[in-house]
Amino acid sequence: MTNLVIKKDVEYDSINHQLTDIYYDAEKAQSKGAIIDIHGGGWFRGNKSKDADASIRFVEAGYLVVTPEYRITPKAFYPAPLEDMDHLYEWLKKSDLPFNHDHIGAFGSSAGGNMTVELAIKYGIPIVSLSGILDIDKWLGEHEDVVAAEGDTSGFNSTASANINQTGANDPFYKWFVTNYFNGRTDQYAEATPVHRVTDKTGQMYLANSLNEFVPTSGVLDMAQALTKHQIPYRTRMMPGSRHAKGYLDDVWDDIEGFFDQTI
């Protein structure tokens, strides 16, 4: 790649004034496809600049990349971030950006992984989820005795994603940010759990998780069962240790690139 172009703060939603960054190689008349790169942060922190590193790597692999902001708590709660991704997808499909519009995929980690899975269910596109927040209703039902605790989240935006939440299980924090997403609406837990809405038209998935990290492996395992039931091809990768999401990105990068090359 010889001519990386980064367009910052392009508005994709004129109603809620949400912005995206766009990455592409100007040497290519048309990228082979587009990837939506959704940052993590538990729906209460983070920004699109956190995923600049992954976005550039996808451009180097031949894709145009859109890396959006989306509404987060406490200004907005479920399902606002998912509605933002609907608007982004519709905007991307209608755009005149230089990529093959028949080929779109999505990549996300942690909360972003949840949101990519939602895109696969809604639009049938292939997605990659690294440590996605997928087990919501079942996990909360099985952990009613856990006392939710935010903990120290200072320094998040100035810390590389690969160095955040890498120390293993933390049930109080997991419960805090998942329940915070719903702002007290316990009746929304089931409808927000994506495994219940997998259909025969769901997109193919690459699902990764670490075996001893703070995001439970049950999300990947339950999703794999649902995808099997509906005969949707998928790949899973369980990593040793406690690394979370982009903490193991280098180890799975070749898998991700190969998956997208075969599915987008």
TrEMBL record:
Stored Pfam families: BD-FAE
Top-level taxonomic group: Bacteria
Keywords: Hydrolase
Keyword Secreted: no
Full protein name: Carboxylic ester hydrolase
UniProt domain BD-FAE-like: residue ranges: 21-124
Residues of the signal peptide: none
Keyword Magnesium belongs to the record: no
Gene Ontology terms for molecular function: hydrolase activity
Species per Swiss-Prot/TrEMBL record: Lentilactobacillus otakiensis DSM 19908 = JCM 15040
Gene3D superfamilies the record matches: alpha/beta hydrolase (3.40.50.1820)
